[in-house]
Amino acid sequence: KQWYQRRVRGICHKDQRLRVGDHIIEVNGRSLRNVTHRQAFSYLDKASSPIKLLILRPSLKTNISNPIPELVLEPQMVELVKEPGDELGIRIMSSHREHGV
What we know:
The protein has two helices and six strands. Helices cover 15% and strands 45% of the residues.
C-alpha cells in the first residue's frame, strides 16, 4: 500500500479529493500490493489520463452493538485528468510494518 501526501502544486492539490493518509491500492487497474516503492512511483508517474486510483480511506465507525469507534478502511475510486505537462503533485510513502508497497 502507498500512503498519500498532497503537495501544494499539481492536479491532486487542485482536485482536492485525495486526502493525506489515503492508501492507494490500484493505479488504472494495476495493483500496488507487493510492489516496490520504485515500481509504485513508476506506475503513478507513467499513468495515462484519466488516472483511476482505487484508494482505501481510513475512517472511524461506530454501531449500536459496539459504541467504541473502530478504524475501518473504506474503498473509493478517484479519477483524475492529467494534461500534458501536468504533475500529480503527490508524495507516496510505504508502510514499514507491512510487506510490499
